[in-house]
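Risk mitigation, structural track. In case the binding assays with 2-acetamido-2-deoxy-beta-D-glucopyranose fail to produce interpretable data, a predicted complex structure has been prepared as a fallback.
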Amino acid sequence: MSDRRSVVLLSALLVLSVSAFVEELDDTFMEMKEADDIWLIKFYAPWCAFCRQLDPVWHQIGSELRSLGSPVRVGKADATSNPGLAKEFQVRVYPAIHMLKKDVKYSYSGPRTRDAIMDFAHRVGGPLVRSLSSLQLFQHAMNHHDVMFVYVGATSQLKGNFSSAAQDLIVHTYFFSSTRDALPKAVSLPSLPAVLVFKDGTYFSYEEEQDGDLKLWINRERFPSYQRIDSYTLYAMGDSGKLVLLALVEENSLSEEGLRYKSLVEKVSEEHRVTYSRNFYFGFMEGSDYIEGLVMGDVSLPSFIVVNLSNDGYFLPPGAVETERHLLDFLDGVLDSSIEGQGGNSAAQRLRRLVYDIRVTLTLLFRQTPLLGSFLLCFPIAVFSIFFYLCCKNHAAGVDEDEDSTRDKKSD
Ligand SMILES: *[C@@H]1O[C@H](CO)[C@@H](O)[C@H](O)[C@H]1NC(C)=O
Ligand SMILES: *[C@@H]1O[C@H](CO)[C@@H](O)[C@H](O)[C@H]1NC(C)=O
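Fallback model:
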């Protein structure tokens, strides 16, 4: 008995100490906070199941940031009972994750995992442009980031443009500044100042004439050219404006064929980077659910697909892809329009997608909770039938009487 009581006490203490790391915020928040506070805030609604799933992750993030001595404070707010605060952050979905840093608001749209949210909090909570003052710091950063944008040189208009791009894009990627001396000797720079991107084991520099606006260029180049792609990443790649060549492979154990598809895409991304990286990203995706939603039909695994995320369009190879040459022909065909695009976001396609989504949702509902599914489907049908029956009855009393009499005979 006393054992059980101490367990209860212990867990109550645990909950208490854990929730102390997450502060409950309300409509007074904007007036109460200090000017240079940095906050990571989760907006929730009491009825939202996804919000509840996020609770343990949120507590963990709160306690970790606290124990790391991070300046980021963690809070949560019930958006339904604090409409003023929710409006201030333009909360439209639940849960919504936002950061507030020196009165600038940043919204998070990645996967709702501890690692991804912690990375976001570190990135946005830290300096907008991080200084790499020595070769060691540069190497250290290289080891931790797949893609790095680095400004090299003294103060200039380009640096101003770089900082203002960072202001908008810090939610997506890290920004660094460095001096010539802190970069490895092997990095050759045509002139200073310069903006470089380090990725895919190489680097290249931004050229205003050919690359256009700096911010758009950074947005286009912020993904590694080949990577594992999940639905969040694929969605985010949409505003890069590039097409994505995907090897769709099995979710758990890869078949030999799946491995071959994956390595073919990786090979093309490495060996033909110069030719295709302006127009394409490359990667592999595990499982077919997301793509089935896009193409509105079954997708066999493994397979290849090129996706145009700007308009929900897609391209399929016209024949079997056995060799690297076949894959290159596929890419060329997409670029010169000899392979016809499918899908898209025309009104007809959007209607088709709506019907498809409803069908998939109903199928899923039936599979998971057949009773509720039947109820949802049958209830309107039943109401409609009764309504229909009453109409008929009023309009054709004679038929009704006939039915009644046959029924009477049967029951006799
Ligand atoms: C900075 O951006 C402005 C427009 O936003 C552009 O006109 C100017 O050329 C840019 N400067 C440099 C050095 O890239
Ligand atoms: C991808 O979609 C955009 C937006 O509709 C369009 O401008 C572009 O031409 C498309 N790309 C290809 C290769 O079809």
